[in-house]
Fold this sequence. Notes:
By secondary structure, the protein is of the alpha+beta class.
Amino acid sequence: MATRRVPRWMIWTGVPAVLVALLVIFWSWDWFIPLAESRASAALGRKVTIEHLHVRLGRVTEVSADGVRVANPDGFPEDPPFARAERLMARLDVMAYWNDRAIVIPAIEVTRPVVEARALEDGRTNYAFSTGKPAGESQPAPPPDSPSAAPRIGLLRIVEGQARVAIPSLRADFQMAIATRDEETEQPRIAVEARGTYAGQPIAGTALGGAVLALQETGKPWPIEMQIANGPTRVSLNGTLQNPLELQGANIRLELRGPDMGLLQPLTGVPIPKTPNYQIAGQLDYVDGRVRFRDFNGRMGNSDLSGTITVTTGEEKPFVEADLRSRRVDFADLGGFIGEEPGRASTRGQSPQQRREVARNESRGRVLPDDPINFPKIDAANVRLNYRADDIVGRNIPFDNMRAAMEVKDGAITLQPLAVGVGTGQISGNIALTPQEGNRLHARADVQFQRLDVSRLMQATNTFEGAGRINGRARIDGTGRSFADILGSGNGEVTLGMSGGNLSALLVDLSGLRIGNAVLSALGVPGRTTVQCFVGNVVLQRGNANLRTVIVDTEDVIVNATGNVNIAREALNVRLRSDSKSFTIGAIPTSILIDGSFRNPDVGPDMTELAARGGIIGGLAALVAPVAGLLPTIQFGTGEDNRCESLVRGGRPAARSAR
C-alpha cells in the first residue's frame, strides 16, 4: 500500500502553528527576569533580584514584579536587605507611546514595601547610593514630546509600607508605617506614622502630605501636616509648599514647645543653651539655600521672645543667624548662657526635674557657674546673634535693659558688645572666648562702666538710697573649663570712680558703727549724706582680688576698704574702716569685717577691737556718771576735708599695710 504523503503546505503552516501553540502554552515572562534585574542593578548601583515577572497585555499594559529585593552595599549583612517589596505594579499606556512617542504610566502601586535604613558606628550607611552619571546627562534636556522625556505618572499608591531607621550617631532607632490614603482629593495622600527613639528620647509622630506625584507640580500648593513628640519636646507644622522638591513658596506655620530649648538641637541641628520651658510659633520657609524661622513670637520662662532665625546649610557646619528681642526678660531665664540652671522654682510651666535642679543650684555652696562649658555644642555651628531686651526684671538686679552682638566661629566666641543699662548709664564690654586644649576656654574681657546710676544700684538693695554717676574700666584675662574656673584663675584690674553724689546716711553710719548717728539716720534725720569722692582700684591676680584702694569720702566721714576676695574659693576677707572728720558721739572706732562665702557672707565688727573698747565703756559706766562712760566712744576727726587725689595717696599705704 502506498504511503500517503503530507502536503508541503501543511508542514509549512502546521509546524509554526504547533510551535506558536507550544510557546503560548509554556510561555513565561520570568524569562525576562535576568534582563530586568541587570537593568535595575545598573541603575541603582546595587544588586536587584526579582522572583516573578508578570505582564498583562492590552491598550494599557500591566507589568508587575513579585518578590523584589534591593541588596545592602558591601560591609553590611545580607539580611535584611536594604529594601524589599511583595509586589511592584505599573500600568503602561501603549497607545500613548505609539501615537505621541510619550511614556505615560497611569498608575504605580507598591505592595508591602519594607526599607531598612541603617548606619554603622564608623559612619557608613546603606542608604547612600552612588549611581554615577548616566551617559548624556550633561546634554540639554530633551523636548517634552521626545521618547526620552521624563515619564508622565498618574497615581502612586503605597499599601502597608514599613521602614526602620537605625543611626547610632543620632541615637536613633525608630519604625515608620507608610501608606497612601484615599481621601476627597484627586490623588491619594501620603501618610506616615513613626515610633521609636531619637536622640536617646522616645519619639512618636504623624505626617500627612499631598500626593507623592504632586511633588513635581510646581504650580499647585502641596499640603503638609506634621506632629512630632520627641521626649518632652512637641513640634507642630501645618501649611503648604508651592514647590515641595525645592522647598520654595512655603506658607507653613511651625509651633515649638517643651521644657528646654537645648533639647531642640538633635531635631534642628542648631546649638542652643539650656532654657526654661518655652512655647513659640512662627512662619517657616526656605529661601536661597537658607531655612528661616521668621516672625516668631512666644515665651521662654517668664520672658517673652520674638524674632527670626536663619540657618544656612551645605557647608561643613551650619551657619545660624538670629535676630532676637524681648520686651520683658527675667534675668534668671538667661542663666543657661553662662552655665547656670535657668529659670526659677516659681517659673510657670517648669517640670519637676527643673524645679529640683533650680532648688539644688540655689542651695549649693557656690555662686559662680561651675558647670563645664559644652564644647561640642559650641562647635556644632557658626553663629551670628543679635539680641535686645527692652526691660530686665529680677530679684535684686540693678540692670534695666540689655543688648548683645555675639559671633561664634569654629568654637571661638566674641561678644562685641555686651551692654546692660543701669539707670541712665551702662556697663558695656567686648569679650572674646577662644578654645584651648583640654576643653578649656581662654577668656579676655574689656569692660567699660559709663555713668552708672547710683540711685539704680541702691534701689537693688531695697534698703538704701543714693545718687551720682560711677565711671570706670575693668580688664580680665583667664582660662578654664567653666566661668567659675576662668574667673578663679584670672588676672586683671578694676578701676571705678565717682566725684559728687550722695548715699543713704544710714549706710555710711553703719559702715563705721556710728551708733548715735545711725539711730537718727534710721529715722530720716538726715536722709542722705553728700559724697565728695569715691575711688576704687582692685587688682586680680590668679583669681585673688586685692583691694588696692577703695575709699569713700563723704561730708563728715572717710570710709576705707582693705583686704581681698578669693574668687576660686568664693571667700571674702574685707575690712571697712571709717574715720570721722569731726567729733562724733556714739561712734565705736573699730572695723567692719566682711568674711565668709559669696553664698553666705558674714558682716560684723572686729570683735577683738570691739571687746577692748567695750570693756573700757563698761568699766567707766560703773564708776562715773553715764555721760562719762561715752568718752571712749568719742572719735576725733582726721582734720581738714580731703579730696580724691589726697585720698588715693593716703589710701594705698593703708591698703598695703592691711595685706
